[in-house]
Specification:
6-stranded antiparallel beta barrel; 11% helix
Length: 213
């Protein structure tokens, strides 16, 4: 299996054995339960569906309640499907999977989260524009984008031009983060570096295709 569902707890600092200071993100990885097992014979591919963070039945809609009732598990707030190589003997519905069952210290993971939403922002904040000059008759154009056209040719605003608009609230994947430490009893993983999203934001943690140096 290649991944697990979790939640961002926050950031802190740890020290290695040789005295180096390392910034780490604290992740609560699981425990997750297997809600559905998909096989090549029935579904055309091998995968398992994991549920994370149990909730009260009244918090789920009727289709989801039927899905959980068929699986014989409690309702979960988050569901995520992960592809696996073989599902015949390794996984069964209701099985609990913890962080220590998948990951180990020193390996690399890819973490996917939703970045903080910043609302509608101008070009200075969104794209780090320098703004216009504060002299030469300028009065209210300090944070303006400047010209967005191109004279007689091509006589239109080119596609992809950096302008003001919605900032943040996007799915962001940070690849190749090293697992510094795993706290098995608490299902906590400490990964080196930062991950997109606020405290309490949901994160998908996958085993990275990159190899640790």
């Amino acid at each position: 299996m290649i991944g697990l569902l979790g939640k961002k707890v926050g950031m802190t600092t740890i020290f290695t054995d040789d005295g180096r200071r390392v910034p780490v993100t604290v992740l609560e990885a699981g425990p997750c339960k297997v809600v559905q097992v998909k096989s090549p014979e029935n579904d055309g591919y091998a995968a398992i569906q994991l549920g994370y963070e149990p909730i009260k039945p009244k918090k789920a809609n009727k289709p989801l309640l039927g899905h959980f009732k068929k699986a014989g598990t409690e309702p979960f707030r988050k569901l995520k499907e992960f592809t696996v190589e073989d599902v015949s003997e390794k996984f069964e519905i209701g099985q609990e999977i913890k962080a220590s069952d998948i990951f180990k210290e020193g390996e690399l993971v890819d973490c996917t989260g939703v970045s903080k939403g910043k609302g509608f922002q101008g070009v200075v904040r969104r794209h780090k524009f320098g703004g216009g000059p504060k002299t030469h008759g300028q009065a209210d154009k300090f944070r303006a984008p400047g010209s967005i056209g191109a004279s007689s040719f091509p006589s239109r605003v080119v596609k992809g031009l950096r302008m003001a608009g919605h900032m943040g609230n996007r799915t962001v994947t940070v690849r190749g983060l090293k697992i510094m430490k795993i706290l098995e009893d608490d299902n906590i993983i400490l990964v080196k570096g930062t991950i997109a999203g606020p405290k309490g934001g949901y994160v998908v943690i996958r085993r990275s295709k990159k190899k640790a140096k």
